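== Sequence and structure of one protein ==
=== Format: two labelled lines per protein ===
==== Data for this protein ====
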Amino acid sequence: MKGKTIIQIVLGVVIVALAFLLYNSIMKPVRFENEYNKRRDACAEKLKAIRTLEEAYKVTYGSYTGSFDTLINRLMNEDSMKTVVKVTNYDKIPADVDINEVPEKEAVEKGYVTRQEVFINPVAKLREDKKLPTIDATGHTVQMTDDQIINLRYVPYPKGETNEFDLQAGMVDKSGFLVPVFECKVPLSMLLSDMDHQQVVNKIAEIEKVAGRYAGWKVGDMTQPVTDGNFE
């Protein structure tokens, strides 16, 4: 009886162990995909913001830049973006005229309103236009802080490492005209370097089977004037 009990206990342990191994084998790829998607989304948020900064840089300075130092420092610290503001000349508006009821074209023609070119800070303008969104700890959408903008250059994973996105800029010939281009990217081999090696290898091979597909996440392209992201 004692021997039979021991055998039953051993069989029970074996069954539990086999069940755990089966469950783990099923969940392992699921956990990998969940983590893969989480890291993709974190990269996408940063790459979209970098694209926004590059587009603002191009509007302001006439080209893209392949330097994070130049991109961030100039956009954050220079009042260099030209914009047009409307100035209401209250001293020229008759007392019986409600400026809010006057069509803009007429107001300009009569001198009630004038348009002036001014130079403003590009990052301040982007925040004003709600173009640098991020989610805070409470789940609300807010505009990126200075520190978050400064740290856009760093790949969000693996945690504890300070790998940077690869940022390039240049010109390509488009029908005889030189057109500015930029590209910002990170390979999966870097982004997933702390995850299961074989699963990472399999994921890269799976992506590379698609003709011309880059095994990583990026925005822009150094060979053509596009600013799309391959995660979109």
Observations:
- The two ends are 66 Å apart (CA to CA).
- The longest helix spans residues 2-61.
